[in-house]
């Protein structure tokens, strides 16, 4: 059966929900944006208006096209407004009981053929869908921030997700201009699985007094071809958000446990202090730190490849497009070769009391 998505519902009008709304409306989709707080809906409307005004000012769209996009969005505070939607994406904060309650309410409101999706960035789909009557129509759509601009969305197949649901979700994302990263249900999915440990390793280096935040950022930019280092990125997304994502990976083993400094900063959402002009490190120390940052990316990637969570092509595409990595995991694997990867990661994992990964083939 072919499912066509023309009317989108979004639960949650915060940063991510509003961004998804803008992306869909700009792509010609009718959108119903729902939030129980009217002020949050008003702020989302303002965000849409400002975005459209900027697009007109930059001659990217006409005034008529902007007006049409704005007219495609309806807002509501009552769940019944989503009754006729073909797809509903939940985009509230990462709280498992809240998400489960939202989907329980949705199942009582929407049609039997409506696709349900979560924008979760770190919770397992199997946990969210545990009480659904029909988990076959449920999938994950993890948009990367800002959702109205970032081209990447992880399309996550849950344990019970049907193929027709995935095909329809993929077609919807493609229609709205997104690059789809297909993956299976696993902590961290395809991309945060390695990016969060990379930021966490940067904090381990800082905790050990080997370098300052600015020095580590400089090494990361130079070694990985990044515009921003890990501490600058954590300040943008929020240390509390980063800590929450890292903690979600803790069940995967000792290597994934949050660094002490990240716990200290993330608990109060305290930003990192980053000097503007860091003193250069000696080349040997800089190389050791750079290698650790690479290893913190490679170890999770090798593990998820062995699990079948995602393909290397999908991981590399996401690394380039979502995180702007100049040196992708695939590049690292090719440069080191199977023996080099196994040697480096075996020693690296052992240092954390973590199991050595399976040999790379």
Textual characterization of the structure:
The structure is a single chain. With 361 residues, the protein is α/β, with parallel strands linked by helices. The protein has two domains: 7-184, NAD(P)-binding Rossmann-like Domain (Rossmann fold); 192-351, N-(1-d-carboxylethyl)-l-norvaline Dehydrogenase, domain 2 (Orthogonal Bundle), CATH 1.10.1040. Helix content is 52%, strand content 11%. It is built from 14 helices and eight strands. An eight-stranded mixed sheet has the order 3-2-1-4-5-6-7-8, sandwiched between helices. Helix 7 runs antiparallel to helix 12 (283-307). The longest helix has 25 residues, at 283-307. It starts with 6 loop residues before the first strand and ends in a 10-residue tail after the last helix. The mean pLDDT is 96.
| Overall pLDDT metric | 96
Weakly predicted, low-confidence segments: none
The SS-based structural class is alpha/beta
- Which CATH class of the largest domain applies here? Alpha Beta
Query: What strand order characterises the main sheet?
Result: 3-2-1-4-5-6-7-8
| Biggest sheet layout | 8 strands, mixed
The CATH homologous superfamily name of the largest domain equals NAD(P)-binding Rossmann-like Domain
Which key phrases capture this entry?
361 residues, eight-stranded mixed β-sheet, globular, N-(1-d-carboxylethyl)-l-norvaline Dehydrogenase, domain 2, single chain, Rossmann fold, 2 domains, 52% helix, alpha/beta, 14 helices, 11% strand, 8 strands
